[in-house]
Give the backbone structure.
Amino acid sequence: MEITHRKTADGYSFRIAARAHEPYLTGQPWQASTPLMKLRDTNARRKRGEPPELRIEIHCLREDLVIEDIEFTSGQFNWSALTRNRQIAVEQFIKDELARSGLPCGDLSEPPTGSH
């Protein structure tokens, strides 16, 4: 992975991209045991107010996500047991696969109406 960072109006921004010869981001961009940044509260002795909070945001486009090699880990698949975020990921994977195959696909999150 190639990592670049820059200062922004709101703090710092890091861009993580696949290397030129790699189609996807894979692996870890850095060793988790090696700190890349240290933060210091310059007003640690404040008498009023709360200490500052760190906010991390991750932004990516849905079409940049690649979901593959899906395997069920249990013998029985239970859709209702999935969290909503996992249901959305499954729906998007199916929708993308249908689109790649040239098949039309409506809103998968809506139950079908009428009898088929």
Q: What stands out?
A: The helical segments are 84-100.
